[in-house]
Amino acid sequence: MNKIATFIEKFIIYALIGMMVIILILATIELGYYLVKNILNSNYLLIDLDNLMDLFGVFLLVLIGIELLDTIKVYLRRNVVHVEVVVLVAIIAIARKVVVLKIEQLSGELIMGIGVLVISLSVAYYLIKKSGLLVCDLNKKEENLEHEKEQGKDE
Question: Are 46 and 105 in contact (CB under 8 A)?
C-alpha cells in the first residue's frame, strides 16, 4: 500500500512540475508580448504608469512560479520542504499584490491588514534565517513519529 501511495505522490508531483513549466512558459511569453506591445504603442518608448504596474505584476507572478517550481523539484529530490523559500514566495506574493493594488480604492483596515501581514512574514523570514531552519525534512518527521509511537507502546 505504501508503494502505491508513493507512486501516486510522485506522479502528482511530476504532473505539477509539468503544468507549472507550461504556465511559466506561457506567462513569460505573455510578459514579453505585453512589454513589446506597450513599448511600440507608447510615445518615446516610455510605458505609462498603469501599464508599468501591470508589467511588474506579471513579472512578480513569473518569479513566484519559478520559486514554487524550485520548491516542488527540491521536494521531489530530497523529500524536504524549504521553509525559507515558502515564506519568501509568500512575501513576493504579497509584494506583487501591493504593487498592483489601487490604494485609493482600499479601506484603512485592509491596508493595515496587509501591513501586518508583510511585517509578520518579514519577521518569520528573519527568524528562519537567524535560526538556520532552512528545510523541513519530511523523512525525519516520519522517523520521529514512528519513534514516538514505539516509545508509547513500551510504556
Answer: no
